[in-house]
């Protein structure tokens, strides 16, 4: 009953919830930025000692991952604000 009632509501137009396909890429971008930041933190502070990686390399690689995560986040956010501003201008 639950599945059919949802389909009937969607077919009748009572519930209209469409997802813009470009929004999926935006969410994916934010998730990837978060993954890079978490990996950077893991490499900097929680890398197992049995991997035998020098401290200089560990710190350098962790900082690069963190910076890349921040870069992805802020560049995506700036791009989204530009798109939102353009949409407001054309309304």
Notes on the structure:
The protein has 91 residues and is mostly helical. It has one domain. It has three helices and no strands. It has helices at residues 2-12, 21-45, 55-89. Helix 2 (21-45) packs antiparallel against helix 3. The chain starts with a helix and ends with a helix. The relative contact order is 0.11.
How would you summarize the topology of this molecule?
Blueprint: H1 2-12, H2 21-45, H3 55-89
Helix pairs in contact: 2-3
- The value of Rg in angstroms is 21 Å
**What proportion strand?**
under 5%
Structural class: mainly alpha
- Give the helix tally: 3
SSE ordering: HHH
Short description:
This protein has helices at 2-12, 21-45, 55-89.
Which short descriptors sum up this protein?
mainly alpha
């Amino acid at each position: 009953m639950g599945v059919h009632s949802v389909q009937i509501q969607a077919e009748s137009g009572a519930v209209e919830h469409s997802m813009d396909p470009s929004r999926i890429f935006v969410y994916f971008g934010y998730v990837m930025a978060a993954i890079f930041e978490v990996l950077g933190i893991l490499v900097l502070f929680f890398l197992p000692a049995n991997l035998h990686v020098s401290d200089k390399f560990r710190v350098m690689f962790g900082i690069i991952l963190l910076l890349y995560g921040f870069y992805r986040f802020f560049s995506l956010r700036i791009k989204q604000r530009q798109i939102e501003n353009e949409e407001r201008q054309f309304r």
